[in-house]
Amino acid sequence: EGDSADFDEEVTSVCPFCGVGCQVSLKIKDGKVRDVEGIDGPANEGRLCVKGRFGFDYIQHPHRLTKPLIRREDAPDKGLNVDPGNPWTHFREATWEEALDKAGQGLADIRSYFGGRAVAGFGSAKCTNEEAYLFQKFIRQGFKHNNVDHCTRLCHASSVAALMENVGSGAVTASFNEIENAEVAIVIGANPTENHPVAATYFKQFAKRGGKLIVIDPRLQNGLKRHAAFNLQFRPSTDVALLNAMAHVIVEEKLYDRQYIEGFTEGFFEFRDHIRAFPPEKMADICGIDAETIRAVAREFARARTGMIFWGMGVSQHIHGTDNSRCLISLALLCGHVGRPGTGLHPLRGQNNVQGASDSGLIPQVMPDYQSVTDKDVRELFRHIWRGTPIDETPGLTVVEIMDRVYRGEIRGMYVLGENPAMSDPDVEHARRALANLDHLVVQDIFLTETAMFADVILPASALYEKTGTVTNTNRTVQVVRQAVQPPGEARQDWEILVQLARRVGLDWDYDDPREIFDEMKMSMRSLHHITWKRLETEGAVTYPCLGPDDPGQSVVFGDGFPRRAGRAQFTPARVTPPAESPDTDYPMILITGRQLEHWHTGSMTRRSLTLDTVEPEATCSLHPSTLRKLGVAAGGYVRLTTRRGSISIMAREDRNVAPGTAFMPFAFVESAANVLTNPQLDPFGKIPEFKYSAVRIEADTED
Ligand code: SF4
């Protein structure tokens, strides 16, 4: 680190990792990012976590793709046996012209021979809003269907489904910073000190000034547990039983907000009748939390003047993920904890731009701003804006459904931008076999990812600090990212590649600048009203909804009603659904997968950050000391994890925060890929896989 005189330039941008959306100052010297500091953005007020502060060096890694690549005619079979630093056995360099022609021709040929539905697309929550918008338009306009999705399907799709259903909007009702106005906050199925570290600093401050923090998770949390008034380490997958029991207490003890329920909700009486079957005394054995604690926590939340609920993928990544979220929404509605400062529902969004990519229409059921493809007026609006392109009225397929069709040979061509299904999909061997089946795969990325190893054409793209555009964080705040450095070699910005490829599949796109794309988005997206590029450049950030040209945006929404019929939110009763598979004699333990502080998702970026990978260079499986004793394995030894999908070897880590009988492992490491083990069964509403619960057998691994 040096002082500003050591650098040629300082450029303001946004951290590329998580949905907190910390603003950063990038220190540039000789055309490279040399240092990163937090600045006074609305979400971070100068703070950064280890990823934002030290993880930027991945953009200078020697494995960066600098030229387009085409699969060699004599390449061995498609698979993971490609060295990202020396891919020449499988790929050869090509000019942009040749690569774009081949990429576009391959997709167009499949469209001609098999129809547009034989091509599908995965876009990226790592790209800008403008790029996400272009990607969904590429598939919808070029191939005339809605089979386009992205990683929101693997993280908060069930939360969004429940929020859309019950409050009429898929985004948070209040920014996480509102916790400073709250008396009580529930954090459930989330581990913010690891996954949203700067947001976690606000949670700790809240507790330090006397706020009641209630942490509910099958894993105790190193970071938050000592700040919490209550730590409820409940049994995995029993969320609905526990949350319905809390609602039961609030109703039974008449702690609910009658005036709010009468004024702003519907469905209360049906909900009240439903939760009568969930007294805490009956649910205690099921969820592993004693009845008095359930009652105490319910009373704290209901009696508080202001309360918030934060949740993460521990809630959403279940086959009952939508029901879990319905329960949380009902709890907030019961207590009137929505629509005022210090109240709200906040699913902590994962990727830096997963909120923005979803808003921009990178979802198979909805166009930009969550406008349903089944609505004739919506289709007419986009037909008009997209110069006569008819919009398909059938909701498209989701990530896992697309991979199933690929596996069955019904989808024969794919365009994958910045996603890594060969690592991120559940039952990943199935996904890898599917990718190998494709007639034509175009991958656009910054590294030769595991997915790119299956590609026919690889298009070298840009990291966030190499591009210009807008991104939207978990708080609904739209922020501008500014190009600080040039992409390496011949790599290009993603929107430019999209435009060039679109022309190859017959689209007459003529965008010359991301601002033009943003202006087109504003034609159909009410959420962008009063948000202009100029404002973003001068003010740095504007939150939607924004009520006027001088309004910085609304941190809290729905104070005067909901965007649903009659302005009312809805109680939706949630039934208990067991996990898709339960422990048995062959697979007696429970595996939970997730992220860790130093690594990000499939590891393509953070595994190439020297600082971060030095701190955590190897995958570990966290096990309780009693489990290790039973296995006869010491911490640092190796264990073999086997599920009905596959088997891996991994180093054991002693962790008292993990309950006996459960195991936790991150999914960022290709050497011990967690998703070889995970269950692809889907939540029927959000279509999200059950990453958080697999029946597993764990044994000492004595092989070398
Ligand atoms: Fe980046 Fe998230 Fe860390 Fe902020 S909290 S620095 S956005 S990874």
TrEMBL record:
Chain ranges of the 4Fe-4S Mo/W bis-MGD-type domain: 8-63
Keyword Oxidoreductase attributed: yes
GO cellular component terms given for this protein: membrane; oxidoreductase complex
Keywords: 4Fe-4S, Iron, Iron-sulfur, Metal-binding, Oxidoreductase, Repeat
A GO BP annotation: respiratory electron transport chain
GO terms for MF: 4 iron, 4 sulfur cluster binding; formate dehydrogenase (NAD+) activity; metal ion binding; molybdopterin cofactor binding; NADH dehydrogenase activity
Family from the record: In the C-terminal section; belongs to the prokaryotic molybdopterin-containing oxidoreductase family.
Name by which UniProt lists this protein: Formate dehydrogenase major subunit
Organism: Roseivivax halotolerans
Entire-sequence positions represented here: 220 to 923 of 928
